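Protein modeling request. Please complete all fields; requests missing the sequence field cannot be processed.
Requester role: graduate student
Desired output: 3D structure, C-alpha coordinate encoding
Chains: 1
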Amino acid sequence: FHLGGNREAKETVRTSELGNEQGRPEDSAEWEKILENWVDMQNTRKLRRLWQRGIPNCFRGRVWQLAIGNALQITPELYSICMEQVRKVRETIAASRTPGPRP
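Delivered output (103 residues):
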Protein backbone atom coordinates (compact mmCIF):
# COMPACT_ATOMS: atom_id res chain seq x y z
CA PHE A 1 0.00 0.00 0.00
CA HIS A 2 1.76 3.09 -1.23
CA LEU A 3 0.43 6.57 -0.46
CA GLY A 4 2.50 8.74 -2.76
CA GLY A 5 0.61 10.22 -5.68
CA ASN A 6 -1.86 7.35 -5.94
CA ARG A 7 -5.32 8.89 -6.02
CA GLU A 8 -7.06 5.66 -5.07
CA ALA A 9 -4.74 5.13 -2.10
CA LYS A 10 -5.34 8.65 -0.86
CA GLU A 11 -9.10 8.11 -1.10
CA THR A 12 -8.72 4.88 0.85
CA VAL A 13 -6.88 6.70 3.61
CA ARG A 14 -9.49 9.47 3.62
CA THR A 15 -12.27 6.90 3.89
CA SER A 16 -10.48 5.02 6.67
CA GLU A 17 -10.16 8.23 8.66
CA LEU A 18 -13.93 8.32 8.76
CA GLY A 19 -14.22 4.62 9.58
CA ASN A 20 -13.79 2.61 12.75
CA GLU A 21 -10.77 3.75 14.74
CA GLN A 22 -10.39 0.41 16.51
CA GLY A 23 -10.82 -1.89 13.54
CA ARG A 24 -12.79 -5.08 13.83
CA PRO A 25 -11.47 -7.73 16.21
CA GLU A 26 -12.43 -10.44 13.73
CA ASP A 27 -10.04 -8.89 11.18
CA SER A 28 -6.96 -9.52 13.35
CA ALA A 29 -6.09 -12.83 11.68
CA GLU A 30 -6.33 -11.17 8.25
CA TRP A 31 -4.08 -8.30 9.36
CA GLU A 32 -1.50 -10.80 10.63
CA LYS A 33 -1.46 -12.55 7.23
CA ILE A 34 -1.12 -9.23 5.41
CA LEU A 35 1.79 -8.12 7.60
CA GLU A 36 3.55 -11.45 7.07
CA ASN A 37 3.21 -11.00 3.29
CA TRP A 38 3.30 -7.21 3.01
CA VAL A 39 5.19 -7.04 -0.30
CA ASP A 40 2.64 -9.24 -2.04
CA MET A 41 -0.41 -7.78 -0.27
CA GLN A 42 0.32 -4.04 -0.18
CA ASN A 43 -1.59 -3.14 -3.34
CA THR A 44 -4.52 -5.54 -3.05
CA ARG A 45 -8.21 -4.83 -2.75
CA LYS A 46 -8.25 -6.97 0.37
CA LEU A 47 -5.87 -4.58 2.12
CA ARG A 48 -7.87 -1.55 0.98
CA ARG A 49 -11.06 -3.13 2.29
CA LEU A 50 -9.48 -3.92 5.67
CA TRP A 51 -7.94 -0.44 5.87
CA GLN A 52 -11.35 1.12 5.30
CA ARG A 53 -12.84 -0.94 8.11
CA GLY A 54 -10.12 0.27 10.45
CA ILE A 55 -6.74 -0.94 11.63
CA PRO A 56 -6.78 -2.62 15.05
CA ASN A 57 -4.62 -0.72 17.54
CA CYS A 58 -2.22 -3.63 17.97
CA PHE A 59 -1.33 -3.47 14.23
CA ARG A 60 -1.59 0.25 13.58
CA GLY A 61 2.04 1.24 14.20
CA ARG A 62 3.47 -1.53 12.05
CA VAL A 63 0.95 -0.95 9.23
CA TRP A 64 1.72 2.77 9.07
CA GLN A 65 5.48 2.11 9.12
CA LEU A 66 5.14 -0.23 6.16
CA ALA A 67 2.68 2.01 4.29
CA ILE A 68 4.68 5.21 4.69
CA GLY A 69 8.19 3.82 4.73
CA ASN A 70 11.35 5.50 5.96
CA ALA A 71 13.03 6.90 2.84
CA LEU A 72 15.30 9.10 4.96
CA GLN A 73 16.35 6.08 7.07
CA ILE A 74 15.89 7.97 10.32
CA THR A 75 16.97 5.77 13.22
CA PRO A 76 15.81 6.23 16.81
CA GLU A 77 19.31 7.51 17.62
CA LEU A 78 19.23 10.10 14.84
CA TYR A 79 15.78 11.19 15.94
CA SER A 80 17.07 11.70 19.51
CA ILE A 81 20.05 13.72 18.25
CA CYS A 82 17.77 15.96 16.19
CA MET A 83 15.36 16.46 19.08
CA GLU A 84 18.26 17.46 21.35
CA GLN A 85 19.36 20.02 18.78
CA VAL A 86 15.81 21.38 18.62
CA ARG A 87 15.74 21.66 22.42
CA LYS A 88 18.99 23.63 22.43
CA VAL A 89 17.78 25.99 19.69
CA ARG A 90 14.53 26.60 21.57
CA GLU A 91 16.48 27.39 24.75
CA THR A 92 18.67 29.83 22.83
CA ILE A 93 15.65 31.55 21.31
CA ALA A 94 13.87 31.74 24.66
CA ALA A 95 16.99 33.19 26.30
CA SER A 96 17.34 35.83 23.59
CA ARG A 97 13.75 36.94 24.18
CA THR A 98 14.21 37.31 27.91
CA PRO A 99 14.88 40.95 28.70
CA GLY A 100 18.22 41.38 30.37
CA PRO A 101 19.48 44.20 32.56
CA ARG A 102 19.39 47.58 30.86
CA PRO A 103 22.62 49.54 30.75
